[in-house]
Amino acid sequence: MWLIKNVHVVDPAQDLDAICDVEFDERIRNIIKHNANTQNTLPVDADSPDEHTVSGRKTSEAAPSGNTVQVIDGRGKYLFPGFVDVHAHLREPGREDKEDLASGAQAAARGGFTTVLCMANTQPVIDNRGLVEFVINQGSQAEGARVWPVAAVTKGLKGEELVNMVELHNAGAVAFSDDGRGIQRGQTMLLALQYAQLTGRPIISHCEEDSLAANGSMRRGPQSARLGLTGIPAAAESVMAARDILLAEETAGRLHLAHMSASATVTLLGWAKKQGIDVTGEVNPHHLIFCDEDIGLTDTALKVNPPLPSAADREILIEALANGTIDMLATDHAPHTWEEKAQPFAEAPFGINAFETALSAVWMSLVEPGKLSVSRLVRAWSLNPARRFSLAGGSLSPGTPADVVLFDPSHTRVIGEGTWMSKSTNTPYWGKPMHGFAIATWVGGIKHC
Amino acid sequence: MARKKSCCWKGIKKGTDMLGNHKDLLGIEQLTSQDIHHIFKTAATMKEILERPIKKLPTLRGKGVGMLFYEASTRTRVSFETAAKTLGADVGSFAVTTSSVNKGESLLDTAKTLQAMKFDLIVVRHASSGAGEFLARNLNAGIINAGDGQHEHPTQALLDAFTLYEKFGQQGEAGHGREGRTSPDSSLFAGRKIVIVGDILHSRVARSNALCLQRLGADVTFVGPPTLLPPEMACCGVTLSHDLDISLRGADAVMALRLQLERQQSGLFPSVREYTALYGLTSARLAQANCATGQTPLVLHPGPMNRGVEIDSVLADSLQSMIEEQVTNGVAIRMALIYLLIGGN
Ligand SMILES: [Zn+2]
To answer: What is the homologous superfamily of the domain A81-388 according to CATH?
Structure first.
């Protein structure tokens, strides 16, 4: 049994934003709110109004016999429902030199994530029952975040034949995506949005029109022109987002837009929601923090797909996350080997290794300057993703599994060897000091990091 | 955890030289107008040496200059080799066909090999923008960028500008400059209008020339169809135009870029015929510009020329003397750069 005392709990699902004592074992047992006026302690769980003390009935009932209560002083710290990351590349099977399910789950937990979804663009592709089960088995043995597979939409990510969606969903796939590339044929996407309704799970669209993005390595604009790098127009994303939104409307399907990076995509998402189309969207921290002007010819750590936006688009993305048009944050954690990134910009692979820096980066760049409220942060990175993908977590409601993160806004780390859990180091923050970290993460009450 | 590597490719190495604080020449971007004039002065001296009967100098005896060409360009490579040898340096060449660069070896591995060979200076041409900067960060040797992707080709820009510098200087002396002026060298480019026409988007020559000429005080206009001259090219601070005839009026010089014919296959322009009709440089066009303003622009071409495409045959022939001059200027400029980078004490 754990007892975190005097900690600032932010849990939008319960409309809770207050100093509390929280106790949990494998499940959340009790949250006692310190009344700001009277210093009385009151339970927030309406179903158990008679719990007034931390050593109350439920505590002793819930604690396995012989277990002691471990008390942590939470003063100056936050307690959040564990973060839920719906977009990660864990590279297993096939590229275990970059990351595997075990190291990915560990790195995620260190970063404050209690549940992560891993994309299907592994080698081989996660497009059959055996591989879905493999990911779930490996993930369940990993000491870290819960890992759930996103299965491919099409066999081999070829954009042609649909996978056995119902079978893969029954095996444990929580969504479908050909992430890594866009589905080029409209008819394939239409059928996927229709057929996936048998599972109730969303199609996650990696919006990228290949002929427009062709061989580009950064967003098209003055900076790509200056550097002599082939530009990818923002429309390469937005035209596909428009198509997929209209197909979701046509089919009444469930659509989720991955890694939104362009202002027009934001406009389209806002329009779709007004129309009542069942669509949500995510944005990656790097698209909110960096922009195309930050790229130099040797900064391959900043090479991502979709590419970093213009400064103007970045502001629109931030605003859309803050006002709820964009539903959630997601890391798009994409580990690559040092050797692969140590190449000229155009030849290096796309992707940022993000689990262990993303929360701190968002905290420093968006929350501290007042661009994103703490409650919006938790809603966007825990509650909303958990709800959209029907996952455990997203709230600290008593009785739910204890997926909990203790966050210290002043904890400082220099990003580097000492604490790093991922197998790869392709982060723009390597060697740099950051602050605002998860100092403890519990997954089902088991403490990690 | 398993082994980790630090991002040592970000490591910066030191080195002082006679070209500002640079150990490398990666692009015009890094040069001030004083740097460029200093290079021109040095190149003028080198050119005198090239005109002597005995050309070989002992200046760089014992120094090693490596040629690393991932894209074939005999002209540029020979120009650099001649420059280095004339200064007395030892030259090692790694053409694509004779080394491991075409066997999938990474640029980083190649850099490590070169490091072990203890070259003082590496001249690199590569199809990727930033390849020179990448090597500069990974090697102690100085780097001269001999063309990186669509980014920069600084030695070409310097030799083009040096050629114009000489021509504008002669115009001044002969009294048929615009005001028959005898201006100081540093203001030879002030108020000059220079047109660069062709496939600007994909051209490192256009980028480097625009930066160089503007730094010297000239006004640069880029001309081409919208597909090869998109609006973001205004980032270089130049004027953009899609009309060659209007742009030629009052121009002091015009540079026609070589058109890569495969651009037509990717749909960037509908046909060579239409391209030539709109953007081909012809004697008739120049005469028309002369009629309008009484001034015929000097014509430059970085070569090799597609006769009848970006430049007509008559004009190409009339350029022949200038092209030979540019070959000499190319060697002189490269001698100056090699000397300034590794010849200092
Ligand atoms: Zn993607």
So the answer is: Metal-dependent hydrolases (3.20.20.140)
